[in-house]
Amino acid sequence: MIPETLIEIKGLNFSYGERSILKGIDMTMSRGKVIAIMGGSGSGKTTLLRLIGGAVRPSSGYVKVAGKVVHELKRDELFQMRRKMSMLFQFGALFTDLSVFDNVAFQMREHTNLPESMIRDLVLMKLQAVGLRGAHDLMPAQLSGGMARRVALARSIALDPLLIMYDEPFTGLDPISLTVIGNLIRRLTDALGMTSIVVTHDVQESLKIVDYVYFISGGVIAAHGTPDEVRESIAPFVHQFVHGEEDGPVSFHYSAEAYASDLKLEGSFA
Ligand SMILES: Nc1ncnc2c1ncn2[C@@H]1O[C@H](COP(=O)(O)OP(=O)(O)OP(=O)(O)O)[C@@H](O)[C@H]1O
To answer: Which residue has the least CA distance to atom 28 on ligand 1?
Structure first.
């Protein structure tokens, strides 16, 4: 039985060497929900996805997926768990020398013993779900950016995952394709009863489709809430994000020594 809470994160700390990236993150994510993770550049959003996928280990705290602590899984258990997760990092590039059909069939052929006739039906079903059944013979080079992303989506649901993690799914899309992809993420999550985590800078688009938003800043959860709560929030951090303001609590600068000392200017005007 898959628990209703698919992901539970408690007291999660993570550092790259000396550099502390996440400092005590708590989150819960239920089945059937679309959750956005937002935050300034370098705030640790992608790192959080990597922790959920077991690609890196926490310094302390834990991530539980479907009731199991990810960093305690044995190697083969982790591989099994990963089969239930799809990760679309920078919207996973398609295999350029394989047709749309073969791209979607790839994992089914790798990871199942299904007969080719059944794979064919399943691939066409997945392509139908993203509106591209008619494009199954095309090669990736013949697709628009939006279509390629829909194929990547069809591929990501090939093995009926419990969880899909999207890193920047809207980047570089025209406004129509952006809405199409947003709506697809929502519809597929609902239809398949999975959970979707969307790391994005696109506040306006994601607020239309998500159930819940977490904002990360300085390694902690700076704010969280439903889209309505986020839109109405007067917290400076959230306001800056939602309204795309340059000045506010989210710093434009990566932390550094004082500029003057970095440029060795002290005393030079004396
Ligand atoms: N392998 C690594 N080794 C050391 N530092 C890293 C490594 N990967 C990322 N970092 C640092 O960790 C911090 C968090 O990176 P991460 O990619 O998680 O941020 P992000 O919030 O996804 O950023 P963006 O929105 O710009 O993609 C950054 O400051 C980055 O420089």
So the answer is: 42
From ligand 1's centre to the CA of 45, what distance in Å?
8
Residue 167: Cβ-neighbour burial (10 angstroms; 0-12, 13-18, 19+): buried
Q: Which of these, 90, 95, 100, 179, lies nearest to 143 by C-alpha position?
A: 100
Q: Give 191-242 as a 3 state SS string.
A: HHCCEEEEECCCHHHHHHHCCEEEEEECCEEEEEECHHHHHHCCCHHHHHHH
Of the CA atoms within 13 Å of residue 190, those in its CB half-sphere come to 9
Domain 1-84+163-170+200-250 sits in CATH 3.40.50.150: no
* Phi, psi at 27, each rounded to 5°: -150, 150
The answer to whether residues 241 and 38 touch, using CB atoms and an 8 Å cutoff, is: yes
Quote the pTM value: 0.87
> Tens digit of pLDDT for each residue in 212-266?
999 998 899 988 999 999 888 877 778 777 777 666 665 555 556 666 566 555 4
**Beta strand 19-30 with 34-39: parallel, antiparallel or unpaired?**
unpaired
> To test ligand 1's pocket by mutation, which of 15, 21, 167, 201 has the most ligand atoms within 8 angstroms of CB?
21
Q: What digits encode the pLDDT tens for the residues 34-67? A: 999 998 888 999 999 999 999 999 999 999 999 9
Q: Residue ranges per domain, the chain?
A: 1-84+163-170+200-250
